[in-house]
C-alpha cells in the first residue's frame, strides 16, 4: 500500500501528539512528588502573584473539571486550578498555577496575540464543529463547494491553534520570571518548572502541526476534485 508523504507526516504528528500527552502527565506526576522550598500551595502562589501585579480583582477558584483542567477565564476574570494544583505544594503545582496567572497578566497588558486569539475563538469554535460535517457531506454528495466552505471554516480553527502557540510560550515565560522574581522558587528548582511547562508547550506544538498538515491535505483534495 502506497502512502502519500503528507499522510506519513500526519501520522508522525499524531504520534508526537500522543507522546507529548504522555510527557505532560509523566513530568507533572514526577514533579508533583517534589515539594517546593517555599512550601506554599498553587492557590497561594496564584493569589500572591496576582496581588503583586495589582490584579486583586482576579479570582482564584478550584476547577470542577478534574486533573489538568487548569485555565484562566478572561470573561470571568478567574484563574481556575485543578485540585492537585490548587492545594498542592509541589514544583508541578507552582508551575501550572503560575502559568495560568501568566494568562491573566497577558490579559491585563492586552497582549496582542491573546487579543487576536480571543477574537478568533468564535470562528474557531464554529469551524471545528461544522467543518467535519461539511467535508463528509461534500464527499458523499459530490458537492465540491461544500468541501471548500469546510476548508475555510477549518482554516479559522487552524489559525486559532497557530496563534495559541506564542500565547502559551509567553505565559510560561512570564510564569518562570515571576516565580523567580518573587522568590517563590530557588534557582535549582528552575529545572523542574521548565520540564513541566515545556512538556505542556509541546502538546500545543504537536496538535498545531497536525492541524496544519490536515488542512494542507484537505486543500490538495479540493484542488484535485476541481
Automatic annotation (TrEMBL):
Coiled coil: none annotated. Keywords: Membrane, Transmembrane, Transmembrane helix. The chain crosses the membrane at residues 6-24, 133-160, 201-222. The keyword Amino-acid biosynthesis does not apply. This is Zinc metallopeptidase. It comes from Evansella caseinilytica. The lineage of its organism: Bacteria, Bacillati, Bacillota, Bacilli, Bacillales.
